Amino acid sequence: MKNLLFHEIHQKSRLSIKELNNTLKGFELYSSQWSILFCLKQFGSMTQKEIWQYLNVEAPTVTRTITRLEDSGWVFREESHDKRAKNVHLSLFAEQHLPEIEKRIQLVEKEMVANLSNEEQDQLILLLKKIGQSF
Amino acid sequence: MKNLLFHEIHQKSRLSIKELNNTLKGFELYSSQWSILFCLKQFGSMTQKEIWQYLNVEAPTVTRTITRLEDSGWVFREESHDKRAKNVHLSLFAEQHLPEIEKRIQLVEKEMVANLSNEEQDQLILLLKKIGQSF
DNA sequence: CGAATATACTTACTTAGGTAAATAATAGTT
DNA sequence: AACTATTATTTACCTAAGTAAGTATATTCG
């Protein structure tokens, strides 16, 4: 069981991203774009900093992805009171299409963990959350 | 707990890659390069196909990474009997340095799962392995 | 045998993530 | 008030992974 944990996490991460991208293809979206839309759906408008902090990625990654989402009409940026920051909002188009996308993704997720009982699924999430908490 | 599994896997994958890259910096290696060296250390010489099948990535990804590993002297390619395929070998330099790298990485992995008991670590790997088996 | 198919790898191009440095606005200090 | 430090975002450039298409070698089948 030596050194297998990282390998396994990495493998399943790639697998789930593949499945996610495959599902999103019909909506002309990519997995990272989806993660930001999902974020905004959950919490409402956010600054870019709030987004990258929640998603645990770096600021430039979010800049890039939001620029693409803005170009394709899923979100728009609004100047905030603090002129350095920008508030990101879902577009009307996004609000209208997100529920359908969410439904499809939940189906894929269900398939992926079909071999795990509900208890195992909860246990897995709990264990994953405990990783790297000392950092 | 809706839709949290993929998110959590993705998060921890990014976190462990960051830690891995940080550790490998001293050896002028990146995480994906390491995964191939680890592979060759475990199984001996392999064709590129054997490598990407084991690592569950696509062929072009492995081509690129091996080219870099070859340029920096960690591996070399040898023509196989089937002239389409190429056998990849660890260099002497790699053989000499891998044990030290392995030791360092194991320390980082240990830190990352310090909050989990040994049983939890085993359980986590088992659950991860069950994901996506229907595909 | 020869044409069609399959296989192993490569090339070109896309998105995803990272670091380092630049820019612009804010906050703090003297 | 003015200088300094901090903060939010962006730009430029690196690796990682994917798809699609190209090349060269093997295999299969009429």
Automatic annotation (TrEMBL), chains A, B:
Keywords noted in UniProt: DNA-binding, Transcription, Transcription regulation
Residues passing through the membrane, by range: none
Entry-linked InterPro entries: HTH_MarR-typ, WH-like_DNA-bd_sf, WH_DNA-bd_sf
Domain HTH marR-type: 2-133
Pfam family, any one: MarR
Record-linked PANTHER family: TRANSCRIPTIONAL REGULATOR, MARR, TRANSCRIPTIONAL REPRESSOR OF EMRAB OPERON
The protein, known as: MarR family transcriptional regulator
